[in-house]
Write the structure tokens for this entry.
Amino acid sequence: MTSAPMASGSLTSDPVAAAPTAPAPDPATVAGPDASGVLLRCRTLVRPALAEAVGQLHPWTGEMAAFSLGWRDAGGTPDPGASEGKGVRQALAVLGAEAAGAEGRVAVAGAVAVELVHAFSLLHDDIMDGDAMRRQRETVWKAYGTGPAVLAGDALFALAVQTLAEAPDVHTGPAVRRLCDALSALVRGQAEDLCFEDRPWTGPGAVRPDEYRAMAEHKTGALLGCAAALGGLLGGAPDGTVTALDLAGRHLGVAFQAVDDLLGIWGDPAVTGKPVHGDLRQRKKTYPVLAALASEGPAARELAALLEAPGGTDGRTAARAAALVDRAGGRAATLEEARRQLATARARLRSVPLAQVAARDLDALAVFLLHRAV
């Protein structure tokens, strides 16, 4: 890391009116009463403002936004059975403010902004990766078309900045600048990730695990760090505390990405909403694969030959590749990386004085992110 070693139905003008005010926790988020309770509490606090913000959008982009957030189906009908995601970023914003000794409500504008940025990034990421499914249903571009999904993502992006810029807070200017910095880092990380696709699996031009780690800090860690830091900033925390919250979130983001990479190969489709061995079917350069190839043993060489072979990757080939990644140590190395990043994130949080209850909740959330499915 750079920061430390290491579609029928009518349109509606109110696309979120029927969204529940206190959503039930996603089963995938329940890793113990502390983590699930923290996530639910923060989502409940942020939901009214998030719904109000999305309600400002054009009815069509608002409908797509509500679909992407799990509130409605592709025809604009309320969909209480859909997954709304974990709400990790909005929780980090709320907890950042509470860690500074303020009430969580002072960070709601920041929480809404980071949640909207996250939703925007998922819409565009699904298009770039060609992913047809997310959270066990069609992605926005599959349901509405590529052009409309791009437009909806753009609308969410603009709404995020507007929401934070209009917050009546003395810290609004620095908060907007911090959000813009995180957006720039996120785009940089996505660019790096896409460029990895054209690089070879082996040889001097191969993607190294440390390059992937830096990409994950930008693509995933920057927004998590921004969320926690925005909460601290809006809560009146001193600069040292805001910086510590930002760095903790960045390390947490790399751990989060490492766990996602494990789930992308070995995750339960009933939980991930994606096919088993999905990342290997798409030949994605994820941390487990890169770590396995870097081991340079017999399994690594066989894996490289398999990945470099022309043609597509069917289920049997993907299963063989997954077994080779495991045998070459890629799975163990990724889990160890996630644990190391989590330990560093927790150390960052312990390096500054934080309100006791909020510090406990932040720690519970951090541990949950590592153990949610591995």
